[in-house]
Amino acid sequence: MASQESAKPLIALSACVREIGILPFHVVGEKYITAVNAGANGLAMMLPSLGDAHARADVLARVDGLLFTGSPSNVEPHIYGGPPSAEGTHHDAQRDAATLPLIRDAVAAGVPVFCICRGIQELNVALGGTLHQAVQDVPGRFDHREDKDLPRAVQYAPVHTLSITPGGMLAKLWPEAEISVNSLHAQGVDTPAPGLRVEAVAPDGQIEALSGAESAGFCLGVQWHPEWLVTENPLSMALFKAFGDAARAHASRRAGG
Questions:
Q1: What number of CA atoms fall less than 13 Å from residue 150's CA on the CB side?
Q2: What span, in angstroms and rounded, lies between the C-alpha atoms of 210 and 199?
Q3: Could you read off the pLDDT of 181-199 as tens digits, one per residue?
Q4: Helix (H) or strand (E) run with residue 22 in it
Q5: Which of 18, 23, 133, 202 has its CA 20 to 30 A from that of 208?
Q6: Whole-angstrom Cα distance, residue 90 to residue 19?
Q7: Residues labelled catalytic
Q8: Domain 10-254 falls in which CATH fold?
């Protein structure tokens, strides 16, 4: 029987709600599942976006970590006091209703959370921050969107550097002050939420990573996609290994180890 230290932690992944054919489906991208399995050495489980149908306390009592995934959808702007979205913007109200309160409760309970792309935006909004709906329209900012006409490997290739904040969580996980990352987003962090620390910025000043500096558990959000080909990227592996280690430690504490 595996020891508590070596057992795979149970990591729940947030789901998007998509209509496939005539029915709604709850879906998770395979790249996130692969990253949890291969990068965090965890046991991946999809968490449906059912809002209050799943009591958050029950979820948090059973999982060892939470991964909030990326998505083509935007967080609805009325939640953080933003102006109405441009026509045609994709939203996922069921996901908003499920993830935002769960993030708040998870951070308060010290359950490890790792938030990617839409996930960092959810983390920021859940804790009281605001977003840019279209970073490319902000004066002085780059266009951080991918070219969807290019091959997938090109879309996910590194396109800009980021500067890592000295003394922060990322700096402890990665020895270099700068690193190149991919960029596939329009929405982005505007004002960081109280209690969140800026961990990295792009050359144009756009916030690329946030941490819960006062959180009792692992709390990290990144704007890029470290889950992509996770085993081929040393930074990605460092992030997911740290997340997996935190989830294992949380499992041990829950078990009284």
A1: 9
A2: 5
A3: 999 999 999 999 999 999 9
A4: none
A5: 18
A6: 12
A7: 117, 225, 227
A8: Rossmann fold (3.40.50)
